[in-house]
Design goal:
Layout: H1 14-22, E1 27-28, E2 34-35, E3 37-41, H2 70-82, E4 87-91, H3 101-108, E5 114-119, H4 124-133, E6 138-142, H5 148-155, H6 160-172, E7 176-183, H7 192-198, E8 204-210, H8 227-235, E9 240-242, E10 251-256, E11 262-266, E12 279-282, E13 287-289, E14 298-299, H9 300-305, H10 311-319, H11 346-349
Helix pairs in contact: 2-3
Length: 351
């Protein structure tokens, strides 16, 4: 993967020198995949109650003392950077709901990584100066409908106008805005063309996501609106151009001729993209997951608090990664019994 010799430069900061020193010892799983992308959940708390993300009842949030603290997040991130991590995404819950979210963003900005986050957009207006100062250039924002009444039905919050205004604010400030849309049959699939039409005059990048099974999210196979079906809907109205996907990307990218923005499909259920996966996850309580659907977790935070070396644990977790979908199911989702999947709810994992 490294095509040039790594040398420390006299003007390198300590962090840059650290990254260059360790990049030759990157994280590989037993299938030969290099892992250089870390997703860090800051909290399992959210100011929305989206039906596909969390259980509708009996929600139990983590005790604050069990969560990674800001300094612990920084120390753990530094170890991952030593091991070649080049991209860090902050997730939740809603990451910006944490009182120290801006402190964490600023702290992580000192590392030589592509720093970004996924948010529901409600607090973007409060943190834009911090994002700009931290060098954040791209934001993923969850928005499953363009209709205010449907938005309330999905999120159980009357905040559509707030989210819409903050998307416009991001665009005005030059951010690359990716809009994540979880498509559910019979619920919001009829809005696919509305989202694509949005890309005509604004440089938004809409990403349609197949509905995935998690604990308590009432998943069933009939709700999955597939990659193929999404393309059929779009192609019935528009002429599209297939774009080049990112090397380790999850999204199959397209553009309508003449449109400013793009659209893509994340086909986790019908056409998984596990063969080139480079992702690792830290839950808000400091457990490492090598896959969104992995059954096992390794307690990184617990080891850190005991003063133990966490690098061997990180390596162990990556090496043990299954070839696809946590080893729990395959692309034959039509015969999937979601009740047999052992996992947390999406909000407990981190989006």
């Amino acid at each position: 993967m490294i095509k040039y010799p790594i040398r420390n430069h006299p003007n390198d900061s300590p962090v840059e020198s650290l990254s260059k020193t360790y990049q030759l010892s990157m994280l590989k799983d037993k299938h030969g995949r290099v892992h250089d992308y870390l997703r860090i959940s800051l909290t399992d708390v959210c100011n929305f109650r989206c039906l596909y993300c969390m259980p509708e009842e009996n929600i139990k949030f983590m005790v604050p003392s069990k969560l990674m603290q800001a300094d612990e997040i920084d120390r753990i991130a530094q170890e991952f950077v030593k091991l070649g991590v080049r991209k860090i995404r902050l997730t939740g819950g809603e990451p910006l709901i944490r009182n120290d979210a801006e402190k964490i963003i600023t702290s992580l900005s000192k590392y030589p990584v592509n720093l970004t986050l996924t948010t529901n957009g409600t607090r973007i207006n409060e943190v834009i100066p911090t994002l700009v100062a931290a060098g954040v250039k791209s934001i993923n924002l969850s928005l499953d409908t363009l209709k205010a009444e449907k938005f309330f039905q999905i999120t159980r919050r009357n905040l559509f106008a707030k989210v819409w205004d903050n998307i416009q604010l991001l665009l005005e400030n030059g951010f690359h805005v990716k809009v994540n849309v979880v498509v559910m049959r019979g619920f919001n699939d009829y809005e696919i063309l509305d989202f694509v039409e949005w890309t005509k005059n604004q440089p938004v990048h809409v990403r349609f996501i197949e509905f995935m099974p998690f604990d308590g999210n009432q998943w069933n196979n009939e709700k999955v609106f597939t990659y193929k079906e999404i393309l059929e809907v779009v192609d019935a109205k528009y002429s599209t151009l297939r774009l080049k996907d990112e090397i380790n990307g999850t999204a199959k990218k397209y553009k309508v001729y003449g449109h400013e923005g793009t659209f893509a499909v994340i086909s986790t259920m019908s056409a998984p993209f596990c063969s080139n996966c480079n992702r690792m996850r830290l839950t808000a309580d400091g457990k490492m997951k090598n896959c969104l659907f992995s059954k096992s977790e390794i307690d990184i935070l617990g080891a850190l608090r005991k003063g133990e070396d966490i690098i061997p644990l990180i390596r162990q977790c990556v090496i043990e990664k299954e070839v696809a979908l946590g080893g729990q199911f395959n692309s034959d989702f039509e015969h999937l019994d979601a009740g047999k999947i052992k996992n947390r709810s999406m909000i407990n994992i981190g989006g």
